């Protein structure tokens, strides 16, 4: 489930416009200069779908977060919760609560797409990316008591 959640947030990073920094010094990369005081907005969704950082970026593959594969990733290639000392303090809480909520739903229901052909569309609302609409069918499971 951990891998599935990470891959979901790689594909559709909710905090798509949430990672920004201000440069504290002039930085010269040779081909690009960032002056002191400039605000930098990290293109999280672009990075999450870039083949500079990911093999087959448009393929949904939770196994890319298996411990062995994860260790090979660039430290800033996955930024669903930001990066570095100012990354999201709610990350662990989100991971735990999402797993509990999903486990409770999956215990009672199987989930199917209402229309398997339909592509999930997302829209960006100020700082967060949210699904435009998600139509799924929940089928009750036979839970033995
Ligand atoms: C799916 C849910 C969430 C996502 C995707 C998310 C994502 C993010 C991102 C991308 C940042 C910016 C990190 C950076 O600049 O490096 C951030 C910062 C932050 N998040 Fe979250 N977050 C989530 C839920 C939460 C929750 C539940 C809490 C509180 C319980 C929380 C508290 C914070 C705080 C306080 C910061 C600012 C940290 C700092 O500036 O030092 N977040 N979050």
UniProtKB/TrEMBL annotation:
Signal peptide range: none
An example Gene Ontology CC term for this record: endoplasmic reticulum membrane
Key words, A-Z: Endoplasmic reticulum, Heme, Iron, Membrane, Metal-binding, Microsome, Monooxygenase, Oxidoreductase
Gene3D superfamilies: Cytochrome P450
Highest taxon listed in the record's lineage: Eukaryota
Membrane topology according to the record: Peripheral membrane protein
GO MF entries: heme binding; iron ion binding; monooxygenase activity; oxidoreductase activity, acting on paired donors, with incorporation or reduction of molecular oxygen
PROSITE patterns associated with the record: CYTOCHROME_P450
UniProt-annotated binding residues for heme: 88
Co-factor(s): heme
Classification via SUPFAM superfamilies: Cytochrome P450
Main location: endoplasmic reticulum
Subcellular location: Endoplasmic reticulum membrane; Microsome membrane
Annotated InterPro entries: Cyt_P450 (IPR001128), Cyt_P450_CS (IPR017972), Cyt_P450_E_grp-I (IPR002401), Cyt_P450_sf (IPR036396), Insect_CytP450_Detox (IPR050476)
UniProt key word Nuclease: no
Family, per entry: Belongs to the cytochrome P450 family.
UniProt name for this protein: Cytokinin hydroxylase
Organism placement in taxonomy: Eukaryota, Metazoa, Ecdysozoa, Arthropoda, Chelicerata
Gene name of the record: CYP735A2
């Amino acid at each position: 489930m951990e891998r599935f959640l990470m891959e979901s947030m790689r594909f559709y990073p909710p905090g798509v416009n949430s990672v920004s920094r201000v440069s504290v010094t002039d930085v010269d990369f040779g081909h690009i200069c960032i002056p002191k005081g400039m605000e930098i907005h990290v293109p999280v969704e672009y990075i999450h779908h870039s083949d500079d950082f990911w093999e087959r970026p448009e393929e949904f593959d939770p196994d890319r977060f298996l411990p062995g594969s994860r260790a090979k990733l660039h430290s800033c290639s996955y930024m669903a919760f930001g990066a570095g000392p100012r990354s999201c303090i709610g990350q662990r809480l989100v991971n735990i609560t999402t797993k509990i909520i999903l486990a409770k739903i999956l215990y009672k229901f199987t989930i199917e797409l209402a229309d398997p052909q339909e592509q999930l569309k997302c829209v960006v609302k100020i700082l967060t990316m949210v699904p435009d609409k998600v139509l799924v069918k929940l089928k009750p499971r036979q839970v033995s008591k």
